[in-house]
């Protein structure tokens, strides 16, 4: 699928867009700006929202980067967002997730199917409900709250909600999954 919006090439970025591209490169530690950010590059105030969300969720905090990458990958998988699922599977492995986990996540239908511990299963059950938009998540919240702090739960919910938003943006605007 072709992108449905124009993306500002890095070499042509000026003003706020150029500044935000610099923030993206610094935050991702990549020498380029990934296309997911460039999707909103013609409208810098929207690009700022995407960059701020990304940098906020992936800042060192109560959850490890690997846990947040797992949530991002799982959420993207549930939302059938190939671009984000592929990208964050790579990041998951880069930040400590096993190859077995990366492989299993591509076809699992329930967190219990993943090679993770019970606390992580509980967290992914909660984020699955967030991803689906279900208002009925009291049981999942209670189960996760037995082993995760309130700050960790808030970060997990924010990560799942942010990636649901990003997944919809990516799929609606036609960004194709990167090829290996």
Automatic annotation (TrEMBL):
The keyword RNA-binding does not apply. GO terms for molecular function: peroxidase activity. This is Peroxidase-related enzyme. Keywords: Oxidoreductase, Peroxidase. Residues 44-112 form the Carboxymuconolactone decarboxylase-like domain. The keyword Amino-acid biosynthesis does not apply. Pfam families: CMD. InterPro entries: AhpD-like (IPR029032), AhpD_core (IPR004675), CMD-like (IPR003779).
């Amino acid at each position: 699928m072709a992108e449905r919006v124009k993306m500002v090439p890095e070499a042509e970025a000026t003003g706020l867009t150029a500044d935000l591209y610099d923030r993206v490169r610094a935050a991702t530690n990549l020498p380029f700006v990934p296309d997911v950010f460039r999707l909103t590059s013609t409208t810098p105030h929207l690009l700022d929202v995407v960059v701020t969300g990304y940098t906020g969720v992936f800042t060192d905090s109560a959850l490890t980067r690997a846990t947040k990458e797992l949530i991002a990958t799982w959420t993207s998988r549930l939302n059938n967002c190939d671009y984000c699922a592929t990208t964050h599977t790579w990041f998951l492995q880069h930040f400590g997730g096993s190859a077995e986990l990366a492989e299993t996540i591509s076809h699992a239908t329930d967190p219990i199917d993943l090679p993770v511990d019970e606390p992580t299963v509980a967290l992914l059950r909660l984020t699955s409900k967030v991803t689906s938009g279900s208002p009925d998540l009291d049981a999942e919240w209670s189960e996760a709250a037995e082993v995760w702090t309130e700050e960790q739960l808030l970060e997990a919910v924010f990560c799942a909600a942010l990636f649901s938003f990003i997944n919809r943006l990516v799929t609606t605007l036609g960004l194709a999954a990167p090829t290996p």
